[in-house]
Amino acid sequence: MYPMTRKFFRGLCMLLFIVLAGSHVHAQKKYAPPSLSKPDSWSMILLPDPQSYVKFERNQPVFELMTCWIAENIDSLRIKLVMCTGDLVEQNDIINPDGIKVNQPSKKQWESVARSFSRLDGKVPYVNASGNHDYGYRSAEVRRTQYNTYFPVDKNFLTQKMIRDVALNGEGIPTMENASFEFTSPHGKKILVLNLEFAPRDTILTWAKDLVDEPRYKDHFVIALTHSYMNSNNEHIKEEKYKLKDRNYGAAIFERLIKPSKNIRMVFGGHIGKPDDPKGHIAFRTDVNAGGKKVQQMVFNAQALGGGWYGNGGDGWLRILEFTSANTVKVKTFSPLFAISPTTQQFAWRTAAYDEFEFSLD
């Protein structure tokens, strides 16, 4: 080998060593578990649609892992509430799954999601939206649902203590599908959480508007939770394919309830997804209500991550919302599934600008 060639070869080897060493250091970036940025902060946890976890028996432990992680971190993160965006199951009422797209009958799906939330019973309150898959036979052919069978008002006494107002569901039964929940934050703010059924009926939007306008709630910070609200372009959803005759999606919910209110300040939803594309599962926008206050609106889902519609159910992703005393909300996207092993902890945080950000509250 010529001297110049040997010199070039040694330089190339050294360059490759530096590149590989740098890549190794980057890949082994030290994992930091979730923590509050300020000691007086408190947090809420937002869980995405569980349907793709519960429809396969192999995926069901993943969602239970997520609620177990929440239970273990109630004190360290000062978790005061857990919210779930709906589609608790893949189908509300099937007895013959095809074994390919779904391998669990509805009874097993409902039992699984109820069992996962049982990890939080008596430890922290939770409010679950109802989604299109929670109605009808497969998906919202009618408003029949087993929601109240598996999530009755007395399932978690901590949630029951918070409940204030209840409306009738599509079958004429008072359930938590349409209900309000009240608590006071560690910073002394009175908060009312308004849970609304999938594509709420006209009567429900009227009930909700009259409720938040009542004098007893005029000074409350109101949070609305529903299922179908925005698409991944941050637009309010105008219409969908479902056959329900009396229905209101995101655009109608905003125009008839959110915008006219003076105290609804945050809205959360789920529902949307695109296989293995995080951005296809999320949305965020800010509008102003009739009281001149900002309304921060967030959609978060994960059901088609981790292998698409028939993958692992969503890679364990959830969102941590940290509320600081300075009226700032810090949003972080975290996976307890990736965090449980040193081999995968490097993937436990999603840190893109749309996954880790903060916003202010008026």
TrEMBL record:
MF terms in GO: hydrolase activity
Q: Which residues form the signal peptide?
A: 1-27
- Organism (species): Chitinophaga cymbidii
The keyword Heme appears for this protein = no
- Where in the numbering of this chain does the Calcineurin-like phosphoesterase domain appear? 74-272
Output the PANTHER family linked to this UniProt entry: METALLOPHOSPHOESTERASE, CALCINEURIN SUPERFAMILY (PTHR43143), SECRETED PROTEIN (PTHR43143:SF5)
Q: Which UniProt keywords apply?
A: Signal
Name-wise, this protein is Serine/threonine protein phosphatase
The record ties this protein, via SUPFAM superfamilies, to: Metallo-dependent phosphatases
